Predict the structure.
Amino acid sequence: MKNCTLIIMAAGIGSRFGGGIKQLEPVGPSNEIIMDYSVYDALAAGFNKIVFIIRHDIEQDFRERIGDRISGHANVSYVFQETGDIPESHKKISRKKPWGTCHAVLCAKDAVNEPFAVINADDYYGKQAFVQLHDYLTAEREPLAGGKLDLCMAGFILKNTLSDNGSVTRGICRADSSGKLIGINETYNIRREGGKVLSGKTETAEVDENSRVSMNMWGCPPEFMDVLADKFEEFLCENDESETAESLLPIMIDGLLKEGKAECTVLESHDRWFGVTYKEDRAAVAESIAQLIADGEYPVSLWG
């Protein structure tokens, strides 16, 4: 069996959640959190190693609420994302805001030597996407010409990823006829309004609710980490005195596609996404999990 790792980004501050640690909010009948269901689905799909990206200040709570429980069922390791964990030459300012998802994944560089998938901690993705990513990452294929990176991503349908409690940001994807990603348009303030799906604040635009979107669920070969390190260094050279700039995976990967340094296959998922972006989302997520259990998708107690 080919090794395949799942990286879970769980270091986010969760400012829109209104305080507390949103990644650790229980949504299942046995106090499971969203990550429990992601790990359960990933292990069932064939992933055999879990890497959690967290902060030092939540480590104890994290281990008590999920890490220790899952460690009895999977190979689990931890890496830490701290704002100050950048090269000394770029420590120009005292910055509180994290450097973004590229920095988060890069923190796991020394912990991963095999194909891997990346997900958010506070998103429920469904079973289909984990199976598709695992099968793609472990399949035998000829290397791409010119040394291009062979990436994949789970593409969700926009209407299946909206929140009833506020606007969301989504990477709207463009793919060619063969399912290869052409580009990603990071689109902000997407919400339902007046029977339509709109984006933007001062200048609004209607968005096709059947658009394919990125939910930060990527599949990457191990050599992606070296490219990521180079790209994050480039980002720091331009932004190391900024208090707010973030290096984001969709934007970085979009740049690789435009530079001809990568190809990315869109693996379409029709599962309904849900997540805890706002505190009010928690009740809806718990109801959705309860329905999936009633439908036989999950046991009442995931880990027995």
